[in-house]
Amino acid sequence: MNRTSRAGTRRPECEPNGAGSGLREVDGRSAETRPVEEPRAPLPTRLGDTAPLPARAREELRAGVAELGLGDLPEISLARLEGHLRLLLAWNRAVNLTAIRDPAEAVRLHVLDSLTAVPVLRSRGVDGILDLGSGGGYPGLPLAVALPARRALLVDSIGKKAAFLRTAVAALDLAGAVDVASTRAETLAVDRVHRGRWPAVVARAVADLAELAELALPLVCVGGVLVAWKRGPLDAELAAAADAIAALGGGEPAVESIAVPGLVSHRLVIVPKLRATPSRFPRDPATRARDRRRAIAESPTIGRAAAARPS
Description:
By secondary structure, this protein is α/β, with parallel strands linked by helices. The protein has a domain at about 115-305: Vaccinia Virus protein VP39 (Rossmann fold, 3-Layer(aba) Sandwich). About 40% of the residues lie in helices and about 20% in strands. The protein contains 11 helices and 11 strands. The strands form 3 sheets. The chain has a 7-stranded mixed beta sheet, sandwiched between helices. The protein has a two-stranded antiparallel sheet with strand order 1-2. Helix 1 (about 55-65) packs parallel to helix 3 and helix 8 runs parallel beside helix 9.
């Protein structure tokens, strides 16, 4: 329908205001129009829909596996490790799963870094793991493949990440042993199915050790372990976490260095579970945050450790 302007000139209700201007006029007023976006291709759900890893990345994986003393991994396990990373890199174009884009670097900093805990867990006879804050599936999926795990639970409260994890589990044909939970650790900790039921809880880049221990140790069975991935000097962080670990039923942490090239600054912190965790733990997030602020105010050294986050 045409309208008459004040000057008596008739113009279309919608009319380009100059070629390529991106503006249209409605009732004589300019309004910006948005460019039409190309529809996004669906995210892959099968390994066959993903690009193969470059030769350099595949060589890095096999060399690193041998360096870790895991030369006994069957070919199907290596294929699953590769397939997981292929899916991650494909999904990462639409869902923020990792800041690492280079496949060979992702092999070293995600896959091999995750596998550094295999000897630790095997030596303790661990066949069940809960991965807290799993994100793109590291370290939980590589550990489930390499141990191999009889059961594993990948936990992430972010829905898009949990959707990726479910896709990866199905694509790798691990649905019989690996499950995914889109929830928070505090929720699992009050569930009888999970509280005190896991031989090992593992976590990379989740929180400082005191905070992580409060979230993870309630889920670990007596005799089990918490394994945390850390970097660099840890004396201050370990000191800050000592009282919390003891109150939660944990024993003295052990720190293991990593001898793999490119990972020499990485550490594994292993916290044994000696006693049942009191039922009041974990506390609610607000209480934990208040106590963290108090610790930072009272002790600059401990405060810096408590505020630090692993990379």
